[in-house]
Amino acid sequence: MDVNAAVAAAAAIAGVLTGVIAVLAFRWSEREQNRPTRSSLHTDAVLPPGVDTVLSVLRSSAVVLDEADAVVKASSAAYALGLVRGGKLAVEPMLQMARDTRRDGEIRQVELDLPRRGTGRGEALAVSARVAPLGSRLVLLLVEDLTEARRIEAVRRDFVANVSHELKTPVGALSLLSEAVMDASDDPEAVERFAGRMQIEATRLTSLVQELIDLSRVQNDDPLEDAEPVRVDELVAEAVDRCRHQAGAKQITMAAGGTADLRVWGNRGQLAAALGNLVENAVNYSPARTRVGIAARSVNAPGGDHIEIAVTDQGIGISDKDKERIFERFYRVDPARSRATGGTGLGLAIVKHVAASHGGEVAVWSAEGQGSTFTLRLPEAGAARDRAHQQTARHERAGGAGLDEEAGRSTPTSPESTAYETLPAPEVLP
């Protein structure tokens, strides 16, 4: 009995000790979990009240650094730009700015070019970085992405330079010709010759100004505000009529064909201008006594049926390197020929903008010495109209709260590229 009692007493003592140890371990674990960590001190205790909320609504990339250069807070945009990696600021010039600002409290700003993350093409991001003290120990870094703004500024500079150059040529010619007319006032033949040249330069100047206006309009206006079903046959007939005189002077045969009674949905004036530019280019860059064909057809596409209007010529063709740039403003494949034909280099740029704003695209096939085919692809009237109505309905159901920013406007699509096929035999027009 004594032995059994001793064993029972020992077991009871061991159970009590185990319970005490378990309670102590639980309390110690709870204390450790509740102890403030380095990250919680940074995000909760260190950041001044309200700063976290302010940083979350800023459009700039925001980074907050502590006295040890560790990242206390960083916005998602800062991670997207590659500014923060592994909890550290990854851009050395910005890090040095932060250290200098922490030392003397002075606000600093600098513009930098950073390598674009994830690309091996050497492209750079242009950013503006501003560093300021935040409280007694923290430093705030705000980074603004200037890449798109710089690109737009470069385009604007190029555009102004090109326009200045293009305007200067006919204006200078008119000035010289007017002086020549004054000096030859007693020579009727010379006056007549110089006056004819003045008319040519004045026509070129008028055409340039008009195309600048057209380009500005198609870039800024919404073509579907006044959209309507437009018959492709009428667009083709108008484009042919526009170029009939030039084609007749070069004995170029104009031919039209393809599927009849097709309709596209859009702004009639802009569509007529775009197709007219394609036909005019085909005539201007074709040798005499050749043929220019215009044909239309309907094509089934995953995003909806499209209308293809192809303009084919037997001209000089376009090299591969030029095909990549022909839709740029003021770019000319053959500057000397453009001067002879009065081309401004804006026609294809207008075509590209019109096609994109109507939810379509323009493609080109060409080989040097074999001619070219420009294909204007546009959504068919029914499909485009239904899509526009659906977008408008979604916008109205959303209460106009900006949930569908593209409602009521054309959404540019990227239909699958198809090889150019021979269209039905065109009808020769007089």
Description of the structure:
There is one protein chain. The chain has 430 residues and is α+β, with helices and mostly antiparallel strands. The protein is 49% helix and 20% strand. The protein has a six-stranded mixed β-sheet with strand order 13-14-12-11-9-15. Helix 6 packs antiparallel against helix 7, helix 7 packs parallel to helix 13 (347-357) and helix 10 runs antiparallel to helix 13. The longest helix has 37 residues, at 147-183. The termini are far apart. Mean pLDDT is 75; it is low at 32-45 and 394-430.
Provide key terms for this protein.
single chain, 430 residues, alpha+beta, 5-stranded antiparallel β-sheet, 14 helices, 15 strands, 49% helix, elongated, disordered C terminus
Q: Which stretches are low in confidence, meaning pLDDT under 50 for 5 or more residues running? A: 32-45, 394-430
Structural class: alpha+beta
* Rg for CA atoms: 35 Å
Give the beta-strand count.
15
Instruction: Return the string of H and E elements.
Output: HHHEEHEEHEEEHHEHHEEHEEHHHEEHE
Shape annotation: elongated
In whole angstroms, the N-to-C terminal distance is 131 Å
Describe the structure concisely.
This protein has 430 residues and is of the alpha+beta class. The chain has helices spanning 2-34, 38-46, 51-57, 76-80, 92-104, 147-183, 188-220, 232-242, 244-249, 268-284, 320-323, 335-341, 347-357, 381-397; strands spanning 61-65, 71-74, 84-85, 88-89, 108-115, 124-134, 138-145, 228-231, 253-258, 263-266, 291-299, 306-312, 361-367, 371-379, 427-428.
